[in-house]
Amino acid sequence: LRKGVARAILEVMLMESVKRAYRSVSLETGRGAAFAPAHTLYESLGFTRCGPFGAYLEDDFSVFMTKRLHGAIE
Question: Rg of the chain's alpha carbons, rounded to an integer?
């Protein structure tokens, strides 16, 4: 914990997404205090909250986030 591994993995995933010319990346994560560190990490990398996507439906247990990609990690 708190060694930067999750951030490093996400940064590699985002760089690969840019290489593949993806326009955005979206994720679903849990809700509640236990997930607050994850939400903070995602937000620090430019993710913002959004509505459900794909086959997901709104529920009391999920948080949906997305990040638009512009050719480079912001």
Answer: 13
What pLDDT, on a 0 to 100 scale, did the predictor assign at position 70?
82
Q: How far apart are the first and last CA of the chain?
A: 24
Q: How far apart are CA 27 and CA 58, in angstroms?
A: 13
- Contact indicator for 18, 69 with CB cutoff of 8 Å: yes
Tell me the pLDDT tens digit for each residue of 19-44: 999 999 999 999 999 999 999 999 99
Contact 42, 27 (CB under 8 A): yes
The residues with which 27 forms a beta bridge, in sequence order, are 65
**The one-letter amino acid at 37:** P
